[in-house]
């Protein structure tokens, strides 16, 4: 079974992370989910989740298809979690959405929390790290951090959906971005219609 780490940070666009986890679980992937404290606030605001029952309980209840054997949920402050060690074998990690604060922490190798440490492990172990930044406009600092991480091998996938598939809903726009991430993970999906142009048109 494929095992992946997914991080959801406090950037707007929490639905991207939740939708990715849903798809991974539906595809039989073991998901190790890290949710930051700011992410809980954004999820509550944008998706209407109530974390009164606790982080783990809420995520397992709201994300369909997960159970105790395939979905593992971690508090970002749990720096002693298995994900903090390179000996914990995973195929890769996706931070979706990725806040500029988290992006900076990963770029600097600060490892101040589980999210940053797990990403640092991906870099040092030379495993796939996918970052989905959701911010606009981008400052020079943001761009420099992205360039630095890209040069280290991270895949930078800004939340910039395409429209050639003629989306009819917000859900279809979200699925396009999630599908792009699934492509990088090497996982099959049917989340969007791939570009298939007809005969070239004369201009």
Which features characterize this protein?
globular; 39% helix; six-stranded parallel β-sheet; 16% strand; 7 helices; Rossmann fold; 203 residues; single chain; alpha/beta
What's this entry about, in short?
By secondary structure, the protein is an alpha/beta fold. It has helices at residues 14-26, 37-47, 55-62, 100-108, 114-124, 140-151, 170-185, and strands at 3-8, 30-35, 71-75, 92-98, 128-133, 155-156. The chain is built from seven helices and six strands.
Q: Can you characterise this structure?
A:
- This protein has 203 residues and is an alpha/beta fold.
- It has one domain (3-185): Rossmann fold (3-Layer(aba) Sandwich).
- Helices cover 39% and strands 16% of the residues.
- It is built from 7 helices and 6 strands, in the order βαβααββααβαβα.
- The chain has a 6-stranded parallel sheet, with helices on both faces.
- Strand 1 (3-8), helix 1 (14-26) and strand 2 form a beta-alpha-beta unit.
- Helix 4 (100-108) packs across helix 6 (140-151).
- The chain starts with a strand and ends in an 18-residue tail after the last helix.
